[in-house]
Amino acid sequence: MNENRKFLDEAAALLGPRGLTDDADLLRPWLTDWRGRFTGTACAMASPQNVEELSALVRLCAKHAVAIVPQGGNSGMVGGATPDASGTQLLLSLRRMNAVRAFDTQSRKITCEAGMILQTLHETVAEKDLRFPLTLGGKGSATVGGLISTNAGGSQVLRHGSMRSLVLGLEAVMADGSVFSMLTPLKKDNRGFDLKQLLIGSEGTLGIVTAATLQLLPAIADRIVVWAGLPSLKAARTLLLHCESAVGDALEGFEVIPDHCLDAVLDHLPEARAPLQGAHAWHALIEIVADSGGADTLGEACETMLADAFERDLLDDAVVAANETQAESFWLLRESIAAAERARGPAVQHDISVPVEEMPEFVEAAVPKIEAAWPKTRAVAFGHLGDGNVHFHVIAPDGAEPESWLTGDAIKISRQVHDLVTDWGGSISAEHGIGQLKRNELARLGDPAALRIMSQVKQALDPDGLLNPGKLI
User: 222-337: which CATH number, 3.30.70.2190, 3.30.70.100, 1.20.1250.20, 3.30.750.24?
Assistant: First the structure.
């Protein structure tokens, strides 16, 4: 019997008809990454219903030397959940494993399985007047396991950090099928390495995350969203520091958007309107929040913050969202930038970070350097000013043929951008991971000692290289 067929027959017997499919039509949507940059093939897709089935499946894969490609909501940006072209790899979906295992409202902790959709998590905890303080544009498809595997960030990182800061406990199936279980959180635990942190951000190359205990916060009782116009990114940085000083931990979001990006969004969304009159080189989207304990004074704090900012000439203009509908419309402008750019034509995107205090200077130096080196391109930067994460996009010249530009000049542009980031002491991946898109660049620019240690860890935990091969390392 063909070895591949033998594996599929044994996997089907293990998982049942709902747990395994090799139907080409059912597989097709999951074989291409969200950006459409990578497409592969797979021998089948497995969907176990619990950790015991997954453990047995991983042992079966090890027996037959079948590589596993874990996939959450398939909303990643770097091809980290796409199989290769061999047709021998097994796609693994944990979307059937989406249960809440424990929910302690008093200690504000929830233990849920990796297949839970982020938006479902938000809705589940909101019923108990709690919230999970991480959100992003793909919340309707992104899964808890995928967010952990990529150490996802989002618009609230300024205050609450990335997934690494919000995961209190973890369960994962390792390459030999054993189950690593450390779901019970302890404030003090010095029993050696913090292994859950090793798995967070490892992109499924060291173990398959199956469940997590997550930190929750009291529900927001009030929020105020402000759109401000600014003359420069340096001015935005000064305004950020002012806001942090004025309202402290109430400052939950501070996004910066250049005028070019806002124009693209307004063209893309026919019903959208610019929040401010007149032209502004830069815009800041500011959100401050309070739970029930601070809601009564939030409006006064915001009013004082803005009045002081105007008095000190820290901004050109600003408007406070009059209601939730307008607040959401402000955020829609920010969240539509990527789609608006795609509609205008091909672009190469870079998810990078530099030291927080140097972000304005980096952008001011990098934009003209890239545009001078690649005539008729347009470089734009936007993102989370408070954590140094900037989305640095380079837009192709008008009339460029998308495929040839993305496989030619775009690759050379990315190398130059990554070189600039490295020279500034930054990272070529701030929140979307390495996947297969940036693997070669990490090998080229990464610290040799760090790369060697990562390879040694991979060899120790996955000696046969069956967990998400070709990604990250």
Answer: 3.30.70.2190
Residues 6+ apart with CB under 8 A from 222: 289, 290, 295, 298, 299
Number of Cβ atoms within 10 Å of the Cβ of 159: 21
β-pairing verdict for 90-93 and 44-46: parallel
Distances in whole angstroms, Cα of residue 466 to Cα of each of 61, 85, 104, 359, 435 = 8, 15, 36, 39, 15
Which of 100, 122, 118 lies closest to 217, judged by CA?
Answer: 122
Residue 215 in 3-state DSSP?
Answer: strand
Closest CA to 359 of 428, 281, 426: 426
pLDDT tens digits for range 173-204: 999 999 999 998 888 888 889 999 999 999 99
Rounded CA-CA distance 360/364 in Å is 6
Question: Hey, how many other C-beta atoms are within 10 angstroms of the C-beta on 111?
Answer: 20
- Contact of 354 with 424, CB cutoff 8 Å: yes
CATH 3.10.20.90 fits 345-432, yes or no: no
Contact 318, 228 (CB under 8 A): yes
Ranges under pLDDT 70 in the chain: 1-3
Q: How crowded is the C-beta side of 471, counted as CA atoms within 13 Å?
A: 31
Nearest Cα to Cα of residue 317 among 350, 353, 281 = 281
d(CA 364, CA 383): 15
Q: Identify the pLDDT of residue 128.
A: 96
183: how many CB neighbours lie within 10 A of its CB? 18
Q: Is the domain 3-93 a CATH 3.90.1170.20 member?
A: no
Please name every residue paired with 228 in a beta bridge, in sequence order, or none if there are none: 284, 318
* Cα dihedral sign, 227-231-233-235: negative
Distance CA 319, CA 89 (A): 52
Question: What pLDDT score was predicted for residue 3?
Answer: 67
The tokens describing 157, both together, are 């990182």
How far is it, in rounded angstroms, from Cα 441 to Cα 445? Answer: 6
What are the structural domain ranges in the chain?
3-93, 100-218, 222-337, 345-432
Domains 100-218 and 222-337 share a fold: no
Closest listed residue to residue 193, CA positions, set 468, 467, 460, 462:
460
Predicted confidence at residue 187, as pLDDT, reads 82
Amino acid making up residue 149 = S
Give the CA dihedral 20, 23, 29, 33, nearest 10 degrees: 70
By C-alpha distance, which of 198, 161, 156, 173 is closest to 97?
173
Q: How much is the pLDDT for 417?
A: 97
Fold of 100-218: 3.30.465
| Encoded amino acid at 93, one letter | S
d(CA 31, CA 28): 5
